[in-house]
Request: fold
Amino acid sequence: MHIGVFVCHCGSNISGTVDCPQTAKAAGEFPDVVYSTDEMYTCSEPGQESIIRAIKEHNLDGVVVASCSPRMHEATFRRTVERAGLNPYMFEMANIREHVSWVGRDKALNTRKAIDLIGMAVAKLRNGTPLFSERFNVTRKLMVIGGGVAGIQAALDAADSGIEVVLVERETTIGGKMAKLDKTFPTIDCSSCVLGPKMVEVAQHPKITLYAASEVDNVSGYVGNFTVQVRKRAVYVDWDACTGCGLCTEKCPSRKTPDPFNELIATTTAINIPFPQAIPKKATINPDYCLQLTKGKCGVCAKVCPVGCIDFEQQDKIEEVQVGAIVVATGYDLFDYSVYKQYGAGKLPDVITSLQYERLLNASGPTGGHVLRPSDGAEPKHVVFIQCVGSRDKSKGRAYCSSFCCMYTAKQAILTKSHLPDSQSYVFYMDIRSPGKGYDEFTRRTQELYGAQYIRGRVSSIHQHGSSLVVRGADTLAGMQVEIKADLVVLAVGIEPSRNSQKLAATLHISADTDGFFMEGHPKLKPVETNTAGVFLAGCCQGPRDIPTSVSMGSAAAAKAMVLFSNEQLESDPQVATVNATRCVGCYKCVKTCPFGAILESEDRWKNPKAEVLPTICKGCGICSVTCPHGAIQLNHFTDNQLLAEVNAICPLPTI
Amino acid sequence: MNVLETMKKCIREALPDLDMVMGWEQGFDTLHATPLFMETAEDVDRLILGPTCVQSLAVHLPSLKGKKIGVVVKGCDSRAVVQLLSENLLNRENLVIFGFGCDGVVSLSRLKKKLGALDFIESAEKKDDRLCIEINGEQQDLPFDDICAPKCLTCSRPNAIISDHFAGPQRTPRIPAKGKTALEKFEEKSLPERFDFWKAQMQRCVRCYACRDSCPMCVCRDHCVAVSRNPHFVSQEATASENFMFQLIHVMHLAGRCVSCGECERACPMDIPLGLLRAKSTEVTSALFNQEAGLDQEAVLPLLSFNIEEETIEEHD
Amino acid sequence: MPPSNDLKDGGELRIIGFLCNWCSYSGADAAGVARLEQPTDLRIIRTPCTGRIDPLFILRALINGADGVLVSGCHPGDCHYVEGNFHARRRLETLKRILPISGIDPERFKYTWVSASESGRWQETVREFTAKIHALGPAPRMTDVVSRSKDLSLEGLLLQDENGGA
Ligand SMILES: Cc1cc2nc3c(=O)[nH]c(=O)nc-3n(C[C@H](O)[C@H](O)[C@H](O)COP(=O)(O)OP(=O)(O)OC[C@H]3O[C@@H](n4cnc5c(N)ncnc54)[C@H](O)[C@@H]3O)c2cc1C
Ligand code: SF4
Ligand code: SF4
Ligand code: SF4
Ligand code: SF4
Reply:
């Protein structure tokens, strides 16, 4: 081989503590190195040109650049050597900045270390081989999982740009939490007035196919070519025929069916449409409460339905969809506050969650927008709000801040005042977090204009006393105990990842953080990407955030998908595993350890069992390679021999 | 009918449906048995069972995958068969297993230590717990425990744990003799002493690969990394360090798979106590993964699986 | 031959690091960006994932005479490849526990988890591990000569003629 080594000064970043000329000179002594030099800024235009010139002049077939981290400039230099006609994988980097000059003070030792790292890179390169990408077609279709406001935004933006979109929603309607809210901060505009039209647009958009009451069962494939199995849950109504007239719901005799849309503070009928603006506006039977399905007698809905769309025999259906990218927007669930014994553990009827309160405030809610407390239907006069219930509480495994509770609590205090002018609100808080445009002003207004009394401290107990509740807590600013007689207590419960998120993460091969929220590709630079190519995130599934940010993320995720779809074809990463068929004994151990199902139990011409890697699915982790005892499966660019060469370069093989 | 005759009968009956059945026959003297590949009913006449049937025939099975094979197994051999099955290295449908209850086998190297050279054996026979042997014209009567394979002293599974045909009675497992195991004794040594010990032992190793070739779980054969250049984990030089590297490769490749058959150590012509390394590895993997190799056909190898929370592994943070 | 082959003369020992690309290698980069000073003995080999790290690489390094080997990857549960470090954890723990039988001091091998954001933790890890290796001193080599008498003194202990075989 003819290897060229380029040692970068990086201004004084490297040369300040590494003797670059001496390093370059020493590098020239390594086997196969025919040219070595030092450069001021290797990544600069002239620096790159000098690499290209050297490749031509010295007939180089491999290049080592000793400079910054490969995570910084590996891609840059690969393009450089490619421009000079070299295979981009005949290039190695020695990280002598982040790992040497910036962390060591002794110039002599640093120089020696830099030389060693170059020796390792040269050794690895000598064991390298040219690699070639494959090109493959992209299915220009996007799947959005979760039809909350984030998912709706992503679906609409993508569809408006001409991309086919499949929107998968677990519930029988899209809209997510926002559809349940009354008004929204900081403008106090009606939630359904802003969301409603968008939901209708989803229903009417020619490019959007909506699968409601559906979930993703399985995902296989890779960026550009995912195959998704969608399970359409049995709803016992033929949705293609149902007109949403609602006759059935009027006649259904099973009227004690819990109503999840109203957060269980009201009941509905066994056959129901969650709310008048539901999309799709279709009836669904709750099989646990339907008399026909549980007891085998009733069938009233089937009798009254004018189009005869009731189908008690309906089964779950699995449909397979091909898509090129996936946006995950599965949102959040509320923290189950019953673990807080001091708040009545969910047993006190007039202690409710913030989302239940939204339903009480909402004109289309069960009380028609009159704030009436659950126990006796009376109007409350004193309302206590408790913030951070299941947020910022390590002892409950919830160390994080749910981000929007301060704001919606302020909003709810304002709304309480406008619904019940005689009422008095009290808010127990830890800190008021309102960093957004107009947000801090908003929480101030709550106190100054609407007279909500903010008390800094935690509540230690809530007791039923006659028809009212006694709330005891600390006022840490005043340094005293407070006791408030309240008619209603609203808990600003924290949020957690939507149920079954963990399973979905596994299905999609994306990771979740310690709290269970999906992990972004990079906290700053890749906030809507994941580390799985072609899978993007939007909204609260990535972490708590309010509506404006969820919407922005929806648009951002759609934009990322559009960038992907702007390519007719994609290039595969050739740093994948390959099987040496002559060495493979067909034990399929590698098949068992590959986390991505990238290895097939295949056969050779003579019907001998052999492993076979699907290069487009392989992610290049190399787990398989360690699994195979005799090294029959090797990870390109990180082969056993390449890594062993690095080891042997630092610690040479002992001789006798 | 005694065990041998029952076994022969079973094999004769099964043979027409099989390509061959593997067992043992007498070798060049009564102390040495050698593998017997039975294809005809006459071949079966030569079968023997007894304390000289030391080799595990399971070692030949993977290379015969695809053929219909019968194999005679002792308790320890049967575990190798189970392990091979669990690793998809054999097809159960193509395999007929003839098991019996093993009464222990001799260790030629222990015997050699006792008697000096082992030439001119006239006869060797096990009588209850003694081995009666006529050597150089002299009659020797030795306690079997003194010359049996070390593994037999602690054998808890003398009966084939998997079989289609089982000849003769089940043996009762022995209660392991008291006292420290060789591993425990070795571990009383300091780390530098152990290192020096292996250095000395590895200088004796001749890299004949008998240990590997006799190991029923070493299925890579021609593709063993010990002899390949790609990957090139170890060089061909027979220096102490390269020999040791090879031994440790074998140990790591066998971690969680070694069935403690002792074949590697038995096969070693230099009497290097290779079993120590394997015994340690088995101790480690059973403690970590609560799983012993060669007992369950359905088991997943511990190093091919994981738990998200590992109870036995302290979190390294 | 470049001048750096005998590391010992600069007071350094040979320490090899195997780091996964996504967490620990980035964490080490971040430590550099933050100029967190570290001892210079360590030489880092980048791998895509701890799941790529064959315990045999570590054994190879130790037998070649490395004085210490440090492996680091993403915290369990955070693997870029979802399961790589779960496999690694079993493999590396197995190796760590088997090492003592070979006479190689298991303290010379450490595996740990450092995320991309834990630059301070990386600095600590390198400092501590390097200090430990210096405390242990240069590793014994397979190539050093063993005295005959030592060899013989060990022999009687092991050969199988005592009860309770291997
Ligand atoms: C009481 C309360 C009041 C609030 N008030 C305001 C406010 O005034 N202003 C404001 O900006 N923010 C407010 N918020 C925050 C707001 O609710 C969120 O910012 C917003 O709903 C996030 O939208 P999303 O699409 O990410 O999640 P979600 O609204 O949770 O939507 C997720 C959707 O995904 C679906 N889904 C979940 N899992 C799956 C699956 N596996 N498969 C298919 N579908 C799935 C769900 O059914 C749901 O439809 C409030 C929150 C609460 C609790
Ligand atoms: S590549 Fe290796 S592990 Fe995979 S099937 Fe072949 S021999 Fe087995
Ligand atoms: S490198 Fe191996 S284990 Fe990893 S994804 Fe590719 S085939 Fe699967
Ligand atoms: S390593 Fe030795 S004891 Fe273990 S299975 Fe192989 S031959 Fe038997
Ligand atoms: S030592 Fe390893 S590579 Fe060699 S045959 Fe045995 S298992 Fe295979």
DSSP finds twelve helices and eight strands in chain B. The first strand of chain B starts at residue 20 and ends at 26.
